[in-house]
Amino acid sequence: MLRKTFVIIPIILLALSGCSSKSKDAAVTGAAPTVGAPAAPAATPTDTTTPQACPTAQTRKLAKTRFIANAGLAAGAFHRYIYSPYRKGAFKSGAKGQKRAIVKAAAAGLFALDQLRRAKANVQADPGLCKVLSAPLQKLSATMKVLVDKLKRGEIDPTTIGAASGALEATRGTAGSAGAGFKDKNVPSNMIGG
Protein backbone atom coordinates (compact mmCIF):
# COMPACT_ATOMS: atom_id res chain seq x y z
CA MET A 1 0.00 0.00 0.00
CA LEU A 2 2.79 2.39 0.93
CA ARG A 3 4.66 1.55 -2.27
CA LYS A 4 1.55 2.40 -4.33
CA THR A 5 1.30 5.75 -2.53
CA PHE A 6 4.88 6.62 -3.46
CA VAL A 7 4.10 5.83 -7.09
CA ILE A 8 0.75 7.61 -7.27
CA ILE A 9 1.63 10.84 -5.43
CA PRO A 10 4.58 11.83 -7.69
CA ILE A 11 2.37 11.18 -10.71
CA ILE A 12 -0.28 13.47 -9.24
CA LEU A 13 2.34 16.12 -8.50
CA LEU A 14 3.60 16.00 -12.06
CA ALA A 15 0.08 16.25 -13.44
CA LEU A 16 -0.78 19.17 -11.17
CA SER A 17 2.38 21.07 -11.97
CA GLY A 18 1.24 21.27 -15.60
CA CYS A 19 4.76 21.49 -16.93
CA SER A 20 5.45 20.00 -20.31
CA SER A 21 9.03 19.30 -21.29
CA LYS A 22 8.22 20.28 -24.89
CA SER A 23 7.03 23.75 -23.96
CA LYS A 24 9.95 24.18 -21.52
CA ASP A 25 12.48 23.24 -24.20
CA ALA A 26 10.86 25.61 -26.68
CA ALA A 27 10.91 28.46 -24.18
CA VAL A 28 14.54 27.86 -23.24
CA THR A 29 15.95 27.35 -26.74
CA GLY A 30 13.73 29.89 -28.46
CA ALA A 31 12.40 27.25 -30.85
CA ALA A 32 8.83 27.40 -32.02
CA PRO A 33 6.54 25.48 -29.69
CA THR A 34 5.11 22.21 -30.93
CA VAL A 35 1.48 21.79 -31.90
CA GLY A 36 -0.75 21.78 -28.83
CA ALA A 37 1.83 23.45 -26.59
CA PRO A 38 1.05 26.95 -25.37
CA ALA A 39 3.13 29.69 -26.95
CA ALA A 40 5.77 31.17 -24.66
CA PRO A 41 5.07 34.83 -23.81
CA ALA A 42 7.61 37.43 -24.87
CA ALA A 43 8.15 38.60 -21.32
CA THR A 44 7.03 36.68 -18.30
CA PRO A 45 5.35 38.82 -15.67
CA THR A 46 6.66 38.46 -12.14
CA ASP A 47 4.57 38.17 -9.01
CA THR A 48 5.64 41.67 -7.98
CA THR A 49 3.55 43.35 -10.69
CA THR A 50 0.85 45.81 -9.77
CA PRO A 51 -2.43 44.08 -8.86
CA GLN A 52 -5.35 44.36 -11.24
CA ALA A 53 -7.61 47.37 -10.89
CA CYS A 54 -10.30 46.88 -8.30
CA PRO A 55 -13.94 46.81 -9.40
CA THR A 56 -16.37 49.51 -8.34
CA ALA A 57 -19.15 47.01 -7.67
CA GLN A 58 -19.19 43.38 -6.62
CA THR A 59 -18.79 41.15 -9.69
CA ARG A 60 -19.33 37.75 -8.06
CA LYS A 61 -21.92 36.58 -5.57
CA LEU A 62 -20.66 35.73 -2.09
CA ALA A 63 -17.09 36.76 -2.94
CA LYS A 64 -16.20 37.46 0.71
CA THR A 65 -17.62 34.12 1.89
CA ARG A 66 -15.79 32.28 -0.87
CA PHE A 67 -12.56 34.10 0.00
CA ILE A 68 -12.88 33.08 3.66
CA ALA A 69 -13.41 29.42 2.68
CA ASN A 70 -10.53 29.33 0.19
CA ALA A 71 -8.09 31.14 2.47
CA GLY A 72 -9.08 28.87 5.38
CA LEU A 73 -8.44 25.74 3.32
CA ALA A 74 -5.05 27.07 2.16
CA ALA A 75 -4.07 27.92 5.74
CA GLY A 76 -5.29 24.57 7.03
CA ALA A 77 -3.30 22.64 4.41
CA PHE A 78 -0.17 24.68 5.12
CA HIS A 79 -0.33 24.25 8.87
CA ARG A 80 -1.35 20.58 8.93
CA TYR A 81 0.97 19.19 6.25
CA ILE A 82 3.89 21.63 6.08
CA TYR A 83 4.33 23.77 9.20
CA SER A 84 3.37 21.24 11.91
CA PRO A 85 5.43 18.36 10.47
CA TYR A 86 8.37 20.73 10.10
CA ARG A 87 8.08 21.82 13.74
CA LYS A 88 7.84 18.17 14.84
CA GLY A 89 11.00 17.25 12.89
CA ALA A 90 9.29 15.00 10.33
CA PHE A 91 11.43 16.43 7.50
CA LYS A 92 14.78 15.80 9.21
CA SER A 93 17.15 13.29 7.67
CA GLY A 94 16.56 9.85 9.15
CA ALA A 95 13.14 10.71 10.59
CA LYS A 96 10.56 7.93 10.30
CA GLY A 97 8.38 8.61 7.24
CA GLN A 98 10.52 11.54 6.08
CA LYS A 99 9.99 10.96 2.35
CA ARG A 100 6.25 10.48 2.77
CA ALA A 101 6.03 13.68 4.84
CA ILE A 102 7.89 15.65 2.15
CA VAL A 103 5.67 14.26 -0.63
CA LYS A 104 2.54 15.11 1.36
CA ALA A 105 3.91 18.58 2.07
CA ALA A 106 4.49 19.17 -1.65
CA ALA A 107 0.96 17.97 -2.47
CA ALA A 108 -0.46 20.17 0.29
CA GLY A 109 1.52 23.11 -1.06
CA LEU A 110 0.01 22.61 -4.51
CA PHE A 111 -3.45 22.40 -2.95
CA ALA A 112 -2.79 25.60 -0.97
CA LEU A 113 -1.60 27.38 -4.11
CA ASP A 114 -4.81 26.43 -5.89
CA GLN A 115 -6.89 27.70 -2.97
CA LEU A 116 -4.92 30.95 -2.95
CA ARG A 117 -5.56 31.35 -6.68
CA ARG A 118 -9.28 30.97 -6.00
CA ALA A 119 -9.07 33.37 -3.05
CA LYS A 120 -7.39 35.99 -5.26
CA ALA A 121 -10.20 35.65 -7.82
CA ASN A 122 -12.75 36.28 -5.08
CA VAL A 123 -10.81 39.25 -3.73
CA GLN A 124 -10.73 40.74 -7.24
CA ALA A 125 -14.53 40.43 -7.36
CA ASP A 126 -15.16 42.50 -4.21
CA PRO A 127 -14.23 46.22 -4.19
CA GLY A 128 -13.62 46.41 -0.43
CA LEU A 129 -11.49 43.28 -0.22
CA CYS A 130 -9.63 44.13 -3.40
CA LYS A 131 -8.25 47.41 -2.06
CA VAL A 132 -7.05 45.82 1.17
CA LEU A 133 -6.08 42.24 0.31
CA SER A 134 -4.68 42.25 -3.24
CA ALA A 135 -1.09 43.03 -2.24
CA PRO A 136 -0.89 40.70 0.81
CA LEU A 137 -2.42 37.82 -1.17
CA GLN A 138 -0.01 38.40 -4.03
CA LYS A 139 2.95 38.30 -1.62
CA LEU A 140 1.60 35.16 0.09
CA SER A 141 1.10 33.42 -3.25
CA ALA A 142 4.63 34.27 -4.40
CA THR A 143 6.13 33.03 -1.13
CA MET A 144 4.06 29.84 -1.23
CA LYS A 145 5.10 29.22 -4.85
CA VAL A 146 8.79 29.37 -3.89
CA LEU A 147 8.13 26.97 -1.00
CA VAL A 148 6.23 24.51 -3.20
CA ASP A 149 8.95 24.57 -5.85
CA LYS A 150 11.52 23.64 -3.20
CA LEU A 151 9.31 20.92 -1.70
CA LYS A 152 8.76 19.36 -5.13
CA ARG A 153 12.54 19.04 -5.41
CA GLY A 154 12.68 17.50 -1.93
CA GLU A 155 14.37 20.54 -0.40
CA ILE A 156 13.42 21.67 3.08
CA ASP A 157 14.28 25.31 3.70
CA PRO A 158 13.40 26.57 7.20
CA THR A 159 13.70 30.19 6.01
CA THR A 160 11.11 29.69 3.27
CA ILE A 161 8.75 27.83 5.61
CA GLY A 162 9.07 30.69 8.11
CA ALA A 163 8.51 33.30 5.39
CA ALA A 164 5.38 31.49 4.19
CA SER A 165 4.07 31.28 7.75
CA GLY A 166 4.74 34.98 8.31
CA ALA A 167 3.06 35.96 5.03
CA LEU A 168 0.06 33.79 5.89
CA GLU A 169 -0.33 35.36 9.32
CA ALA A 170 0.06 38.88 7.89
CA THR A 171 -2.65 38.12 5.33
CA ARG A 172 -4.86 36.66 8.09
CA GLY A 173 -4.46 39.86 10.13
CA THR A 174 -5.20 42.13 7.17
CA ALA A 175 -8.23 40.03 6.25
CA GLY A 176 -9.50 40.20 9.82
CA SER A 177 -9.25 43.99 9.85
CA ALA A 178 -11.22 44.05 6.57
CA GLY A 179 -14.02 41.97 8.10
CA ALA A 180 -13.02 38.78 6.28
CA GLY A 181 -11.07 36.97 8.99
CA PHE A 182 -10.45 33.29 8.33
CA LYS A 183 -9.50 30.31 10.44
CA ASP A 184 -7.66 27.16 9.41
CA LYS A 185 -10.09 24.70 7.83
CA ASN A 186 -9.50 20.98 8.10
CA VAL A 187 -8.56 19.59 4.70
CA PRO A 188 -9.73 16.00 4.11
CA SER A 189 -6.64 13.80 3.80
CA ASN A 190 -7.92 12.25 0.54
CA MET A 191 -7.56 15.69 -1.09
CA ILE A 192 -3.84 15.70 -0.29
CA GLY A 193 -3.04 12.12 -1.19
CA GLY A 194 -3.98 9.96 1.76
Q: What is this structure's SSE topology?
A:
Elements: H1 2-17, H2 21-29, H3 63-88, H4 98-124, H5 127-152, H6 158-177
Descriptive account of the structure:
The protein is 64% helix and 0% strand. By secondary structure, it is mostly helical. It has one domain (2-9, 62-191). Helix 1 (2-17) runs parallel beside helix 4, helix 4 (98-124) runs antiparallel to helix 5 (127-152) and helix 5 packs antiparallel against helix 6 (158-177). The radius of gyration is 18 Å and the shape is elongated. The N and C termini lie close together (11 Å). Mean pLDDT is 80; it is low at 1-7 and 13-50.
What brief labels describe this structure?
mainly alpha, disordered N terminus, single chain, 194 residues, elongated
Q: What would you call the quaternary organization?
A: single chain
Count of DSSP H/I helices: 6
Strand proportion:
under 5%
Characterize the biggest β-sheet. none
Question: How many DSSP E strands?
Answer: 0
- What would the principal axes of the Cα set say about the shape? elongated
What number of structural domains do the residues give? Answer: 1
The termini sit apart by 11 Å
The pLDDT mean sits at 80
